[in-house]
Design goal:
single chain; alpha+beta; Rieske Iron-sulfur Protein; five-stranded antiparallel sheet; 4 helices; 13 strands; about 25% strand; binds FE2/S2 (inorganic) cluster
Length: about 325
């Protein structure tokens, strides 16, 4: 009778499902935290619940069902010698009267619970401090670049501006700006601009205009007064753009033409507000077909330098915090 009351829990697949759920969460953090990590979280929760429920079945007064042994009964003395399993005294004392579960069950549940709490205490703050700051406090920047009329049609300018004056000089940026003239949008003529970031798509060095600029052309640089402070516009005539660090080269639409960069130069979104050019967030570009106002830009959300935005390679990079 005693043998029927003291059991080990039967083997279960719940821990395996729990581990798969954790693995899916981690993979999702790299690929798609919103969907894949959420699915991993759901798997983890379901299997974690089932695992805890099984492990604590006896604590909750549920009897553990153990499959009966199905070995053939061999008659004593039929080809085997040795004492019967029932011979001799009890190896262990019977549980005390009223005891509902063996102590090992309690220790097992305590160990699991304590392990979970310690794991959570260590993992949650580390993960939070490592990941969250990049996702919080990101502001959208708007940079007033001055009146559209101050940008001569077809002329390139090296524009230097500040995206957030409160951050000081670390927020200074440079972009190559060209007024493409007007473009018909929904039956209306809208100003069209090409605004290319000077951050190299290889490792982020400052890309330069390959061509003369300013005084050498007999053109004066101009300063616009915007809400974010002065914007300097230095006229230039680039044959393309080049990176001084590792020789990355781009054409005037920002397409990579040589060197190690893996994609085209990033661009700035923009809008026209009361006749003034306003720079918005940057976005990444795989490549551009065509030119100027007619260019077809293959646009992607902003990613870091060196990262592919299309093709299978795009899956090999960690998630990017929002850039504005
Ligand atoms: S950083 Fe521009 S080519 Fe390497």
């Amino acid at each position: 009778m005693q043998d029927e009351e003291i059991h080990l829990p039967p083997p279960t697949l719940w821990p395996l499902g729990f581990a798969i759920g954790i693995a899916v969460i981690l993979v999702g953090l790299i690929i798609d935290p919103l969907w894949i990590s959420s699915i991993g979280g759901a798997i983890t929760l379901v299997f974690g619940f089932l695992w805890i429920r099984d492990a604590s079945a006896e604590l909750r007064g549920h009897r553990i069902v153990v499959e009966p042994e199905r070995r053939q009964v061999v008659e004593a003395g039929a080809g085997q010698v040795g004492p019967s399993a029932q011979a001799g005294g009890d190896a262990m004392p019977h549980p005390a009267p009223g005891e509902r579960f063996p102590r090992s069950k309690f220790l097992e549940a305590s160990t699991l619970g304590l392990g979970g709490v310690i794991g959570g205490l260590i993992t949650v703050p580390v993960a939070g401090f490592a990941v969250l700051p990049s996702f919080l406090g990101q502001k959208r920047h708007r940079v007033d670049m001055g009146p559209v009329a101050d940008y001569k049609e077809g002329q390139w300018y090296v524009a230097t501006f500040n995206t957030d004056p409160k951050e000081g000089d670390v927020a200074r940026r440079t972009a190559f700006v060209r007024n493409n003239g007007s473009l018909a949008v929904s039956g209306r003529q809208e100003p069209s601009f090409t605004i290319i970031s000077n951050r190299c798509a290889h490792l982020g060095c400052p890309v330069q205009a390959n061509g003369p600029s300013g005084a050498i052309l007999g053109l004066k640089s101009q300063t616009e007064k915007g809400a974010n402070g002065p914007v300097t516009l230095n006229p230039t005539v680039p044959a393309g753009f080049g990176c001084p660090c590792h020789g990355g080269q781009y054409d005037t639409e920002g397409n990579r033409t040589a060197g190690p960069p893996v994609r085209a130069l990033d661009r700035y979104d923009y809008e026209i507000d009361n006749g003034r050019l306003v720079l918005l967030s940057t976005y990444s570009v795989s490549h551009v077909d065509g030119q100027g106002a007619q260019a077809k830009i293959h646009k992607y959300k902003s990613v870091g330098p060196g990262e592919h935005v299309d093709g299978p390679e795009q899956w090999f990079y960690p998630i990017n915090p929002p850039h504005h």
